[in-house]
């Protein structure tokens, strides 16, 4: 017989073992399922997420870079570390002191520590600098990286300029700058001030232009600095309200220290005084020279008045080859320091005067008191009275009505060209737009043009002559051929697109229109045939130009044909395009841009047409002693090349 108790015990033990095994199996299964799910999620994330993760990282970096483009707010601790406890003093003055520093990423900076007679004065200077230079970017303006505003430290952080201020090269022991370098510094400084006055969203008046506020980088390229006295003003306001005297005696315009209306022309006066010192490589007032030369501006006036600059050139150490440029600089300076503000040219005209793009009449004496009530101003036929320099070089404003006139279209064309020229040549980094076309040129309430849509644009270093492409860009019909073919790409692709845009503005039609006679279907080629034959009458009639617009229309056609040359090297830079459109350059008849045999050639202009192996240069004048010309003797073979800077391509 079986033992009941024993049987019960065995059954219980078996059941207990079964339950235990089931629990362990359940745990193992759960662990396996959990591990499988985790691994699946990881694998899934590896399969799905890389692009989005890369996209997020790329966008984060982009937004960080954009944030760095704005002035950064630094802590005092960061600046103490960057400057090694403010150990390296670069200079000091009434505004404060400037120290050299370096951030952990290797960026060199100049830290200006502000101090003054009161907190109010420090705050005014601080706000003036951050509100002006903090919102603009230009190749000829010093860049503001950021600031610090704490109880124990008020400081501004600027890009470091290796060669310091211009005054030490003009007045110090080290006068190693040659004439061409000094001229380039004068032109670059003028361009920086012109940008402040005429190209910013709001006009900026500097109020303190002088050699100490022109800084030089490692290549001796100038940048206007120190905006502690600067003021933002609306373009509609012709005069500015002053709260006290501004500027440095000897450079400040007379209206800043007298009860006269103040305009941006006070900067023009100061630039004129700076230009005198660049010419003389000395201070304007010196006691250790003959009495007739003590005040340099008056001595210059006497030399210009008597058309005798030989003695001055000898004293200043200039050679005979520099005579024309020296006289141009002297006349420009004398126009800038005219006693009445309205008799002074705008800074954009000053740039043209210095570059040789304008004929400069002999200026009137800016120094006698009787000029207080006179208004003597030039035109192209030498001196005319009762007129003033105009701020627009060719065409008057059109108000708020688009009247369809050639002058109105010219304003749109030139304004667009200037916008692209700024992107290419005046930004801190060159910007290539890649999609210039009518749809990307917007017009404001006064029909002034603005280049828009930077979705395809690319930043590139000025040192890089060619750009790496990751695929075709631009709009067919406007895009340059190198954008769709295996050729090197440069900023000249925008020049091509502008040329195609210019054709459509001339014709007031699309470049390709199959509804027209076969000879007119493709407008650019029709234009070329008319220009080649020297017969544009039919074209002018079809496009609605009047007889008085003939010269301007032909200038626009030739410019467009130069812009769309097949070889990028043969296209002019946008700054030269502006001069061509404004009439500041004589435009040779262009070669056929559409003939396929030009692919292997390099055809460029001279005064008598038909010169080869040369290209438009980005420089505008005075090539005789530049380092660029040394590479090409042929570049100086004709007068138009010497005058307008046509030379061999360096890229």
Tell me about this structure:
The chain is of the alpha+beta class. The chain has four domains: 72-159, Phosphorylase Kinase, domain 1 (2-Layer Sandwich), CATH 3.30.200; 167-385, Transferase(Phosphotransferase), domain 1, CATH 1.10.510.10; 406-593, Transferase(Phosphotransferase) domain 1 (Transferase(Phosphotransferase), domain 1, Orthogonal Bundle), CATH 1.10.510.10; 604-651, no CATH class. Helices cover 38% and strands 11% of the residues. It is built from 18 helices and 18 strands. The protein has a six-stranded mixed beta sheet, sandwiched between helices. The chain has a two-stranded antiparallel sheet with strand order 7-10. Strands 8-9 form a two-stranded antiparallel ribbon. Strand 14 (441-443) and strand 15 form a beta hairpin. The longest helix has 45 residues, at 4-48. The protein is flat, with a radius of gyration of 33 Å. The chain starts with a helix and ends with a strand.
Quick recap of the structure?
By secondary structure, this protein is an alpha+beta fold. The chain has helices at residues 4-48, 50-69, 76-82, 119-132, 167-171, 179-198, 265-280, 296-305, 310-316, 323-336, 347-355, 406-425, 492-507, 523-533, 537-543, 550-563, 574-582, 639-644; strands at 72-73, 89-93, 96-102, 108-114, 144-150, 153-159, 203-205, 214-216, 222-224, 231-233, 376-379, 382-385, 430-432, 441-443, 449-451, 458-460, 615-616, 646-647.
């Amino acid at each position: 017989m079986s033992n009941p108790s024993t049987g019960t015990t065995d059954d219980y033990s078996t059941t207990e073992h079964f339950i235990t095994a089931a629990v362990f199996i359940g745990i193992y299964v759960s662990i396996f399922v959990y591990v499988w799910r985790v691994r699946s999620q990881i694998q899934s994330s590896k399969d799905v997420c890389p692009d989005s993760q890369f996209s997020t990282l790329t966008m984060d970096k982009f937004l960080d870079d954009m944030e760095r483009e704005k002035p950064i707010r630094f802590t005092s601790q960061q600046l103490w570390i960057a400057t090694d406890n403010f150990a390296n003093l670069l200079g000091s003055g009434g505004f404060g002191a400037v120290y050299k520093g370096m951030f952990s990423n290797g960026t060199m900076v100049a830290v200006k520590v502000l101090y003054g007679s009161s907190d109010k004065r420090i705050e005014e200077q601080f706000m003036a600098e951050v509100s002006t230079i903090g919102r603009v970017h230009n190749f000829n303006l010093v860049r503001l990286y950021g600031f610090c505003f704490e109880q124990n430290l008020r400081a501004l952080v600027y890009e470091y300029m290796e060669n310091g201020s211009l005054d030490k090269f003009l007045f110090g022991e080290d006068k190693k700058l040659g004439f061409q370098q000094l001229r380039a510094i004068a032109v670059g400084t003028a361009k920086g001030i012109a940008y402040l006055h005429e190209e910013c969203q709001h006009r900026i008046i500097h109020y303190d232009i002088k050699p100490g506020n022109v800084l030089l980088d490692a290549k001796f390229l100038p940048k206007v600095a120190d905006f502690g006295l600067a003021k933002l003003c609306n373009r509609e306001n012709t005069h500015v309200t002053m709260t006290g005297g501004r500027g440095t005696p000897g450079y400040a315009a007379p209206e800043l220290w007298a009860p006269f209306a103040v305009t941006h022309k006070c900067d023009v006066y100061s630039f004129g005084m700076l230009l005198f010192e660049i010419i003389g490589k000395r201070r304007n007032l010196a006691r250790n020279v003959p009495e007739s030369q003590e005040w340099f501006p008056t001595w210059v006036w006497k030399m210009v008045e008597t058309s005798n600059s030989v003695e001055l050139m000898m004293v200043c150490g200039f050679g005979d080859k520099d005579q024309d440029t020296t006289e141009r600089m002297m006349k420009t300076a004398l126009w800038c320091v005219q006693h009445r503000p309205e008799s002074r040219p705008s800074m954009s005209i000053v740039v043209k005067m210095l570059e040789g793009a304008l004929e400069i009449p002999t200026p009137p004496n800016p120094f006698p008191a009787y000029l207080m009530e006179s208004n003597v101003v030039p035109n192209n036929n030498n001196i005319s009275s009762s007129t003033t320099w105009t701020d627009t070089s060719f065409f008057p404003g059109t108000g708020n009505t688009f009247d369809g006139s050639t002058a109105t279209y010219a304003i749109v064309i030139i304004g667009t060209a200037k916008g692209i020229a700024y992107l290419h040549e005046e930004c801190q980094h060159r910007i290539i737009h890649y999609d210039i076309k009518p749809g990307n040129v917007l017009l404001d309430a006064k029909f002034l043009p603005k280049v828009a849509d930077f979705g395809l644009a690319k930043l590139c270093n000025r040192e890089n002559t060619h750009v790496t492409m990751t695929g075709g860009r631009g709009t067919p019909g406007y895009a340059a051929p190198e954008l769709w073919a295996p050729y090197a790409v440069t900023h000249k692709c925008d020049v091509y697109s502008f040329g195609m845009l210019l054709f459509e503005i001339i014709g007031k039609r699309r470049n390709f229109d199959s509804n027209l006679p076969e000879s007119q279907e493709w407008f650019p080629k029709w234009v070329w045939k008319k220009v080649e034959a020297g017969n544009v009458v039919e074209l002018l009639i079809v496009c609605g130009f009047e007889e008085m617009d003939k010269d301007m229309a032909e200038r626009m056609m030739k410019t467009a044909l130069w812009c769309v040359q097949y070889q990028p090297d043969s296209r002019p830079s946008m700054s030269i395009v502006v001069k061509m459109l404004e009439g500041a350059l004589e435009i040779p008849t262009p070669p056929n841009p559409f003939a396929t045999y030009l692919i292997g050639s390099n055809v460029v202009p001279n005064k008598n047409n038909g010169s080869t192996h040369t290209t438009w240069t980005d420089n505008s004048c005075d090539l005789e002693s530049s380092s660029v010309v040394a590479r090409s003797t042929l570049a100086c073979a004709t007068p138009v090349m010497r005058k307008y800077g046509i030379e061999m391509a360096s890229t």
